[in-house]
Amino acid sequence: MPHAPPLGALLRQYAAGSVLTCEPVDQGLLNRGYRLCTTRGRYFLKHHFDPETADPAAIARQHRATQRLADLGVPVAPPLTGRDGRTVAVVGGHAYALHPWIEGRHRHGGQLTGAQCARLGALLGMVHASLEHVMPRQPRTRARPADKPPRAESPAPAARRCLTDRTDPAYRPDFADRIDPANHRGPTDRIDPANHRGPTDSPDPAENSDPADSPEPADSPDPADSPDPADTFTLIDELLVRVRRHRPADSFDELARHRLLERRALLERHADRRPPRGGSVGWVHGDFHPFNLLYQGDAPAAIVDWDRLGVKPRAEETVRAAAIFFVLPTGALDLPKVRAYARAYRRTAGATPSELTAAAHRVWWERLNDFWMLRWHYERGDTRADPQFPAASALAVWWTREYDAVCDAFAD
After folding, report:
1. Is the separation of the CB atoms in 74 and 303 below 8 Å?
2. 88 plus 235 within the same structural domain
3. Is 187 part of a structural domain of the chain?
4. CATH code of the domain in which 38 resides
5. How far is 42 from 37, CA to CA, in rounded Å?
């Protein structure tokens, strides 16, 4: 197979038996994964290939975070520990980790009922609240009053959809009894109140020097500036040149040109609505979307791929995830499902409607200025994201038109 991992050396490090079968897992865009069947069981072998996330110290930090989250009842799949007491194996200059194989499937928002959408929002809320307990404490950065997003110009505000705020068990996840209703945080029975960290067991001596347990993480807690439309106009012009020169021209080129011209017109119209820096920050998963969540039946079984774990605006991750889970093939968002998801998230994470509204504005602006799929296609020759482009590119246009209705769904 292409890029075959050094299975013999790896399995010896993990005392995982001898390999019987090894099958590539094709879901990831950045790293490589393999399904292993050995004489001792089934495993998921992850090759941390992406240079931005392949630092062994950072991977070890992620591993400790997932172990602490698992101790709190969050559905994750912590890695196995090798013979040397470490969870990261470096072979031939490449970093690998071995995880238990979690049987399950991915589900997008169209496959979820309203109650399951609420469960998804509560799950992400539990992740954010639990990370706040198990990771180093960070100063919270709050948005200034001027950060309130302007309302979109529209013929008339979208009508509010009235959904009963259900409190029956069907709208609560199985792990709801492990959430402290007094402060909307994660479970507290195994949290050290002296330092607000996770389980107090000492890390492996071999990992004591890792920066994961230092007071300050490697990630900056400051929210990033929002995209500058002047930079985006330059990028649009550069991409249009690449589209025009692409031979032979095809239907993807035609759609790309249409969306680039359309987006430039939208940005010219809404350039004065650029948001300031984001609001409160905290530890987030960093890449919460359908391919990073496994279901067994109707229940979430494991949140995987913690490569982007970092300190970022939490509410923006919530909105960004909804824009992936609940986008329809036409490029619209399924707003009733967004509403159920957002309500459960706010209730579990203790977030306010204004935080979600401000985050929706920032993510909308981000989408207006984002062309990563076209950059992959035309600059890198990487077409793996091409199937996502039609709906993703239509979403920015639809979101601009239905701006008020989208904000209402996140805040109601």
Report:
1. yes
2. no
3. no
4. 3.30.200.20
5. 4
Instruction: Pick the closest to residue 315 from 370, 365, 358, 364 (CA basis).
Output: 358
Looking at residue 355, which CATH number applies to its domain?
3.90.1200
pLDDT at 137 (0 to 100): 75
Question: CA 106 to CA 321: how far, in whole Å?
Answer: 14
Ranges of H-type helices in 226-381:
229-245, 251-270, 314-325, 335-349, 353-368, 372-379
N-terminal to C-terminal alpha carbon distance within the chain? 51
Q: Do 19 and 148 fall within a single domain?
A: no
Mean pLDDT for the chain overall:
82
Decide if 285 contacts 308 (C-beta within 8 A): yes
% of the chain residues with pLDDT over 90: 69
Total H helices, total E strands in the chain: 11, 9
What is the distance, to the nearest Å, from the Cα of residue 133 to the centroid of all Cα atoms in its chain? Answer: 19
Among 356, 326, 376, 353, CA closest to 116: 326
Q: What is the pLDDT of residue 178?
A: 34
> How many beta carbons lie within 10 A of that of residue 254, not counting itself?
11
Q: What is the dihedral of CA 35, 40, 41, 47, to 10 degrees?
A: -30
Overall average pLDDT of the 118-127 stretch? 98
Residue 107 domain flag: no
Q: What is the pLDDT of residue 390?
A: 96
Residues 93 and 145 in one domain: no
Q: What is the number of structural domains in the chain?
A: 2
Q: Is residue 200 part of a domain?
A: no
Q: Residue 297, SS3?
A: coil
Q: What is the pLDDT of residue 352?
A: 96
User: Residue 216 falls within a domain, yes or no?
Assistant: no
- State the residue range of the domain holding 248: 113-180+223-412
Q: How does pLDDT run across 232-243, given as a tens digit for each residue? A: 999 999 999 999
**Quick one: pLDDT at residue 29?**
63
> What does residue 116 show for φ and ψ, rounded to 5 degrees?
-70, -30
Domain end marker among 67, 100, 133: 100
Region of poorest pLDDT, from 147-156, 198-207, 277-286, 362-371: 198-207
Query: Are 121 and 93 contained in the same domain?
Result: no
